[in-house]
């Protein structure tokens, strides 16, 4: 509940609630009108030439109906700007009646800011979309630059979405020092249940600057845990769709790329709540996967080689090594005559096609075409009549097809990579002078799986397969992508993304949270591999998730995992946020269950984070004690989230809980090469409280009791 809940009988609150109801009614009317037009085909032309525009109109209308859907409990406006009368609306020119309206007051022009624009039945805007130019002042006006605004109002809502409070912030007086942050703090502290929410009502200026950066600009945003990178990326996408929808649609659409399905299910509601229903959300493995199933992870030494950009050249060589000189002349029998193509001609044609630099798949087509053409030339030279269809028929002639198959075989990208990784001689040929003999030995899969079907694939294999697939036929393009948790992507995965994007990217991540052995360790290199070397590297420095005590404690790991980085400035320090609970080894599970029971007695979500191999035992214990819980999995979207989530530590990135219980930090730190980075991620998931339960010694930097934190500062 908001600390600033005001009396429901306060006349101002009553008036604002009535206006909210009126806006909802207008939204329903807008949706109904468009729905009726869609059903009746009103405004569509009858002529054949109208087909395309009718289709476009119908698509636009059905999208509008979806975008205008009235989401339960999502308030239609969250803020208001108060301007001097006449500053925004021209009452005389608009022919507005004397007494004005709710937004046109005798002494003020009021601009309501919400998740989507709403108009009344006369077409008058009564709520402005947060992305519209007029809404900019809601986020940016300050006593230093009031942008014409007198007062900014923010609204608070109870847990059912009913408007229950408001807070006015005068911005036109130089002596006021901001203020008006009660509702922002309350919004950030609001207990979490279920998936991530939008932050549209409280986006901060340092975040808004990035959200509104122009489409042409690639941004790479570094930020400590909880600084709002994901939130900024998603809101940026919504903003770009609002300002550049057609351009992005023509460019192939937009996508969010995240690390795994449980992360995507966590963020899945944010864009729809902003009215954006057409954004595809995919994992990096789905993007690169080409239908294979990822069943295991690579050993770190193998991962480092497989993820390396040098593999692109190895794959390229291995693919083109499939092209072979002809084994014999080609004899084409057509209409009772046989035409011969000697090997010298075949070789000449092969070189001519290779010299054109076309993709592998297109090269095959071209070779067939050229061989058919050679036959046609012979026919013409012999004075035979050549029908216009002859060339096409010869292209499909079985002798020509057989020759093309032998010289330029069709290639299945997965088989190609399988052969490369499992055949020492082929690997040696393709990697000669690129990978050392030792690296080739590390890369070679031993023992050799008996067949392609018996191969178990890794995420990094998928990127190799995608590299091969793209050399055969280039993939479709996207207009813009948001790449989250980018600190973990290998150069080969970044290349796969680069190939897909026609325009710019928004790259989000935190180098201190990089756990993948194949990851790139600086953003300049990431931008180079993603094909946008001129992108801007930006940093978010204010933490919105993690209380100061917790972030300061976790930041003790930074000198060991990312020496150049600092923790964010957290402005929240709830009492009792951090607890270290030492148990006897046989008591760890009992202590975890007791901590879950205590946490579940409070509002909000509870996450138990443990080393992956400890999850089955914990899940069993929770079930035995009657605690319903969701267990996160990398490739499954949970049908629903229970309040209690059991999270393998490898799936904690990007998500958060009101209360996080981290079990046995030492086991997490010792589970993998970059275990301390993994632990840093685990320790920074809590919004309100972190309980660390351990029987083993805490990893070195965490061993001493946490000191009382310095108080942070919230801008
Ligand atoms: N301006 C804001 N107003 C309200 N809440 C915010 C704001 N900025 C961020 N948050 C909240 O802070 C939390 C952390 O945000 P987010 O997940 O985007 O951070 P992140 O930088 O991506 O973190 P991580 O590195 O852990 O993935 C989320 O609950 C988000 O909604």
TrEMBL record:
Q: Which residues form the UvrD-like helicase ATP-binding domain?
A: 202-547
Taxonomically, which superkingdom?
Bacteria
Q: Name one GO cellular component term.
A: cytosol
Q: Name one GO molecular function term.
A: ATP binding
Tell me a GO biological process for this protein: recombinational repair
Q: Which Gene3D superfamilies does the record cross-reference, listed alphabetically? A: P-loop containing nucleotide triphosphate hydrolases
UniProt entry keywords in alphabetical sequence: ATP-binding, Helicase, Hydrolase, Nucleotide-binding
The UniProt annotation places ATP binding at 223-230
This protein's name: AAA family ATPase
Please name the taxonomic classification of the source: Bacteria, Bacillati, Actinomycetota, Actinomycetes, Streptosporangiales
